[in-house]
Design a protein that fits this description.
four-stranded antiparallel sheet; Malonyl-Coenzyme A Acyl Carrier Protein, domain 2; six-stranded mixed sheet; 47% helix; 316 residues; 2 domains; Alpha-Beta Plaits; alpha/beta
């Protein structure tokens, strides 16, 4: 009855670890710092917006804080509640798919952190080798955005199909600018330049593929009875995750379709775990009949437990 969702790059913000610092779940930060050899506490507490915007920092910071929130939820709910119910399925947006796999038990937190660090480093190098950008398009459907991208000579592609009327385009700087002109003429309400470090989920990430695949080959994946919705096909999976993550790098994030799939599975309460509330907004626009909750800070735990109790009809 519960669906757990995990955010991707772009959700991070300066100081986002502060509210969690004195919570028991902060031990996740210390543990993953040891695994990655990075001072993740400083990244979560003291890094400024520009430092956090760097892909190699944004991804591991968002992944780590999302696992802090997951740990706090596990502590608040009965033992095994996440793994054996009432959670129905999990999903993550782009980077968040790695966090979702940890939540489902397909990856250990340690292996997940290693993969996320390798992915962030590889994607940052690819972005430096093939500079690009992204823009959010509001008010047009997927087909219209795709058609506009096909008219671009400098390279632009649909990167994220997030929600009805919200599509993200990635490509070269010139390509995204040209696409924006076409989209405005087609009636887009807004075309918003995103403050990102590259053209993610597009062919401009191809040079990162080898490094990511090498990291994936060294990771230990487990099958899981808790299904994970994959970005690349919006279908539920319990195994085969290495190939899915490999394909995800340069492929479109089919998030709108993923939310519809999770809703069709019977999810009643969609819970976003980690920094930001962007995914909850996408749920509101896509699966209108479900309830939503966010856990971005410790103050959100109590209200979530109340919602779970109400959903289950008995104390959680």
């Amino acid at each position: 009855m519960l669906v757990l969702l995990f955010p991707g790059q772009g959700s991070q913000r300066a100081g986002m670890g502060g509210p969690w610092r004195d919570q028991p779940s902060w031990e996740v930060v210390e543990r993953l710092s040891d695994v990655t050899g990075r001072d993740l506490a400083t990244l979560l507490l003291d890094a400024g917006p520009d430092e956090l915007r760097m892909t190699a920092n944004a991804q591991i910071a968002t992944f780590t804080l999302s696992l802090v929130a997951l740990d706090a939820v596990r502590r608040a709910l009965p033992p095994g509640a996440v793994e054996r119910g009432p959670v129905t399925a999990v999903g993550g947006h782009s980077l968040g798919e790695y966090t979702a796999l940890v939540a489902a038990g397909a990856l250990s937190a340690e292996d997940g952190a290693g993969l996320v660090q390798a992915r962030g480093d590889a994607m940052q190098a690819a972005a430096e080798a093939s500079p690009g950008t992204m823009a959010a398009v509001l008010g047009l459907g997927l087909d219209e955005v795709e058609e506009a991208c096909r008219q671009v000579s400098a390279g632009a592609w649909v990167a994220n199909d997030n929600a009805p009327g919200q599509v993200v385009v990635a490509g070269s700087v010139a390509g995204v600018e040209e696409a924006g002109g076409h989209l405005v003429r087609r009636g887009a309400k807004r075309v918003i330049q995103l403050q990102v470090g590259g053209a993610f989920h597009s062919p401009l990430m191809a040079s990162a593929q080898g490094r990511l695949d090498a990291a994936l080959a060294g990771a230990s994946f487990s099958g899981t009875t808790l299904p994970v919705v994959a970005n690349v096909d919006a279908r539920l999976h319990t195994d085969g995750f290495g190939a899915l993550l490999s394909a995800q790098l340069c492929s479109r994030v089919r998030w709108r379709e993923s939310l519809l799939e999770l809703g069709a599975l019977g999810g009643q309460l969609f819970v976003e775990l980690g920094p930001g509330t962007e995914l909850s907004g996408m749920v509101r626009r896509t699966v209108t009949e479900v309830s939503r909750a966010n856990v971005s800070g410790p103050e959100d735990i109590g209200p979530l437990v109340g919602q779970v109790e109400a959903l289950m009809g008995s104390p959680a």
